[in-house]
């Protein structure tokens, strides 16, 4: 079984690299945002630069997890080859696991430009241990967004998925404080922000890379979102399988 998972993972990663526009979009937008806004305005402040770098790194990985994954899953469902593969006796697990693992790989690739900008052009600081823990936290906190992406990809057509995933992504990123520092968020957004999954993920990243104390409400909300998203993704997969393979 492990060899099948590895084969599917390798296939999905190669598939993404052959058409890298999704990876480039997830990686370059936050890096360009850093150059335009973080470097000139907060680059000399180690605390602010480190926090902004973590936020925009997660912005890129979140984009990859939610938008890119939902689109490739929905496109996959419309291909005859996918229908054939899902009827094979190996079952759904190897392909499903391969999709998740390849998603993790793409998430890591998408944060490299932002990390380099933060390291080269700002006073952002992190020890090797903080950096390693931060990358682990970034990957783990990306799970609910991958599950949301799977839910969208398994329930909608490819054309609808493109619009819906973006409509979900940008409000979550803004409400979560990834583009605007939490301390300057408008009052009404600050009330809602702790209950969004992006804010919980950002709080954990800021906690492991700076001396920022995490908001407990936001962390609990992230855990709740993860459970709900897992249930929704499982339901969407079974629904799609029931409709297509009766």
TrEMBL record:
Localization of this protein: Membrane
GO annotations of cellular component type: ATP-binding cassette (ABC) transporter complex
Assign the protein's first listed, main location to one coarse class. membrane
Which InterPro entries does the annotation name?
Answer: ABC2_TM, ABC_2_transport, Nod_factor_ABC_transporter
Does the record bear Lipoprotein in its keywords? no
Membrane topology for this entry?
Answer: Multi-pass membrane protein
One GO BP on record is: response to antibiotic
One Pfam family of this chain: ABC2_membrane
Listed GO MF terms:
ABC-type transporter activity
Q: Where is the ABC-2 type transporter transmembrane domain?
A: 13-198
Q: What are the record keywords, sorted?
A: Antibiotic resistance, Membrane, Transmembrane, Transmembrane helix
Say yes or no: keyword Transcription regulation present.
no
PANTHER family listed in its UniProt record: ABC-TYPE MULTIDRUG TRANSPORT SYSTEM, PERMEASE COMPONENT, NODULATION PROTEIN J
Instruction: List the protein's name.
Output: ABC-2 type transport system permease protein
- According to its UniProt entry, this protein's organism is Nonomuraea jiangxiensis
């Amino acid at each position: 079984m492990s060899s099948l998972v590895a084969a599917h993972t390798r296939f999905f990663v190669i598939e993404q690299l052959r058409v890298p526009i999704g990876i480039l979009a997830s990686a370059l937008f936050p890096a360009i945002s850093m150059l335009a806004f973080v470097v000139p305005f907060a680059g000399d402040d180690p605390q602010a630069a480190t926090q902004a770098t973590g936020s925009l790194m997660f912005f890129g990985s979140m984009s990859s997890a939610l938008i890119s994954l939902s689109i490739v899953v929905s496109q996959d469902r419309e291909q005859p080859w996918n229908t054939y593969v899902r009827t094979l006796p190996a079952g759904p697990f190897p392909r499903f696991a391969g999709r998740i693992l390849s998603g993790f790989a793409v998430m890591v690739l998408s944060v490299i430009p932002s990390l380099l900008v933060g390291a080269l052009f700002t006073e952002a600081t992190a020890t090797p241990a903080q950096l390693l823990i931060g990358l682990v936290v970034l990957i783990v906190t990306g799970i609910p967004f991958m599950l949301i992406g799977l839910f969208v990809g398994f329930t909608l057509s490819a054309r609808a998925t493109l619009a819906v995933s973006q409509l979900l992504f940008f409000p979550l990123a803004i409400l979560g404080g990834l583009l605007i520092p939490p301390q300057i968020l408008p009052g009404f957004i600050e009330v809602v922000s702790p209950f969004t999954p992006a804010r919980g993920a950002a709080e954990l990243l800021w906690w492991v890379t700076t001396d920022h104390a995490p908001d407990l409400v936001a962390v609990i909300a992230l855990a709740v979102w993860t459970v709900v998203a897992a249930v929704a993704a499982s339901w969407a997969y079974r629904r799609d399988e029931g409709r297509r393979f009766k």
